[in-house]
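Section 5.1 Outputs to date
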Amino acid sequence: MSTISTWVDSWEAAMEGREAPSRQVSVMLCQCYNQLTNSD
C-alpha cells in the first residue's frame, strides 16, 4: 500500500511540474503494474 501511495505522489508531482517526459511516466506506470502483479 505504501509503495502505491509513494508512486501516486511521485506521479502527481511529475504531472504538476511537467518535468518528467512521457516515457518516464510510462515506465512508472509499468513499474506500478508489475508491483501489483508481483504482490499477487
